[in-house]
Amino acid sequence: MKNKTINPDNHQAMHFLEYNAQRTHLMIPEYGRHLQKLIDQTVAIADREERNKAAKYIIQVMGTLNPHLRDVPDFQHKLWDQIFIMSNFKLDVDSPYPIPTREMVYLKSSKLEYPQKNPKYRFYGNNIKTMIEVANSWEDGELKEALVRVIANHMKKSFLSWNKDSVEDKVIFDHLYELSEGKINLIQTSEELSTTNDLMRINKKISNKSNQASAKNTKGNFFRKNTNQNGKKNFQKNNNQNKSQI
User: Fold this and answer.
1) Based on the structure, what is the number of domains in the chain?
2) Which residues lie within the region annotated Disordered (predicted)?
């Protein structure tokens, strides 16, 4: 057998291999490593005019890599912002748009606070609390009494949506008294809310309408799938009919 000799040039080639773990982090990985190196080389150019030419050339390359975004408003503005981000904000060129800063790009928006952290009666929703506050702000009279009846019936309907069993009006009145902090008291009154059957019928109508709308969309998608580009239905062979003819 012939002894295999190792070419010393192979060791030299292995020495220049780069691994991703050793490379610099890509700011925008979608553009790839080669474009990142072009931007790094542009940052190192001493002459400003040559630097501007190189930056404009890179912008053209970035535009060809994203042809689907050419119809997007301010497309060029977006590309210029991206080239500054990929240069780690070190690129010093003449930009036709305001140059972004690190603080502007990585500015964190404040967190949105939830209106209620741990609501006791989740099935009523958060809007019922707002409705109760509005009712408390009104003066006593027929309008306020009508609003209170609407709130109580809405609470009963929400309760039945969560629990399909019947619920007594007293339970709704107790919850309304608790949520209003004792300002709305219907416990001792002879007020009667809508019956369970009426409210369940309303909930059923709403659910049926939503189901019909989804069924129409599904049916429309089915017919669109079974039509070709000329608007004609696709031909389907009926094997049962052929067997009967035989």
Assistant:
1) 2
2) 206-246
Torsion of CA 49, 50, 54, 56, to 10 degrees: 20
Q: Is residue 10 a part of any domain in this protein?
A: no
Is the domain of 101 the same as that of 37?
Answer: yes
User: Domain span at residue 35?
Assistant: 20-105
Q: Taking the model in full, what pTM does it have?
A: 0.44
Instruction: Specify if 24 maps to a domain.
Output: yes
**Half-sphere exposure (CA, 13 Å, Cβ side) for 119?**
14
The overall average pLDDT reported for the chain is 78
Phi-psi region of 208 (alpha: psi -120 to 50; beta: other; left: phi over 0): alpha
Nearest to 174 by CA among 148, 141, 144, 152: 152
Q: Considering only 13-17, 31-35, 153-157, 215-219, which range has the smallest mean pLDDT?
A: 215-219
Distance between CA 40 and CA 86 in Å, rounded? 9
Per residue in 43-83, pLDDT tens? 999 999 999 999 999 999 999 888 887 777 788 899 999 99
Chain centroid to CA 4: how far? Answer: 61
Domain annotation covers residue 167:
yes
Domain-ending residue, one of 105, 140, 161: 105
